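Subgroup meeting minutes
Present: P.N., E.W., G.H.
Scribe: E.W.

1. P.N. recapped why we're keeping a running log of single-chain structure predictions: easier to compare across weeks, and new members can see raw inputs and outputs side by side.
2. G.H. added today's entry (319 aa).
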Amino acid sequence: MTFGKVIGYIASAIEELQFTDILDIAVVSVLTYIVIKFLRETRAAQFAKGILLIFVFGQIAKLIDLYATTYIFDLVFDFGIFALLIIFQPELRSMLERVGQKGFKGLSLIKTDDDRTLRETKATEMVDAITDATTSFAITKTGALMVIERETKLGDIINTGVVIDADPSSALIRNIFYPNTPLHDGAVIFRDFRVQAAGCFLPLSASHTSKDLGTRHHAALGMSEVSDAVVVVVSEETGIISVAVGGKLQRRITPDALSTLLKKYLIPDEEKRMDFLKKDFIMKEIFKKGQDGEEQTASEKKVKKSKRNSKKSKKDGEN
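Output recorded in log:
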């Protein structure tokens, strides 16, 4: 097909386009928008990846005539739709309620705040606030549970608590976890370097059942098992600071180590930049030493040459 035929085909399609076609495209676009927004705001994105993989394997099984495997995949898809509706019933209900109350205001898939320097500044301010508050909690033995959202969206967890949406500060975090306040028993969720919600409920870990760990630690591990979030927890009994990532708990962390660890997880370029600065410093030192060595060698040569000249002049004077 030549380029001219393609242009002609497009032109004829535009001429035959009717109002109902435009309306149809608009409806499909809105529905697609809602689905993508739902996947971005909840952990459903992980399930969507799994469903996509199952679909791909099912198509491959059909292509190479694996009849039994194809039959199993067909059954999974036939009943899987109903299973998904049951699994995501709370999230779907919440999403439909938000759409009914607010329409599509505030639903945006485009992030304009992509400036790396600004994001790193906000991340640093958030880390400083968390570190300062955590240090205070460790001293006073105040229990705390803080979840920092990363790639996996935690909209379903945020909906279990009270939305705050405020700039992070040590005072705000300490007020939230002050004993006997309404929100102190739940978790604080940080999203986009802001305090998004407080008093949230987290899933408990199914694989870690140690008696040495309290409910907060099991919740921290459970959250880190189902998402890529960074979870900071302070023990109410001992004041020990711990961090859970990827289903693993790191305990007995000092405030300085906490700050470094959070920056490592939340500012990916921080470690690379520090390595570059270290290497650059080392290279400058090596170059400086090399220059100093060359200058020293040159001065030594001059001294030796002057000594030889003086000895030679003495011998000439004696003769």
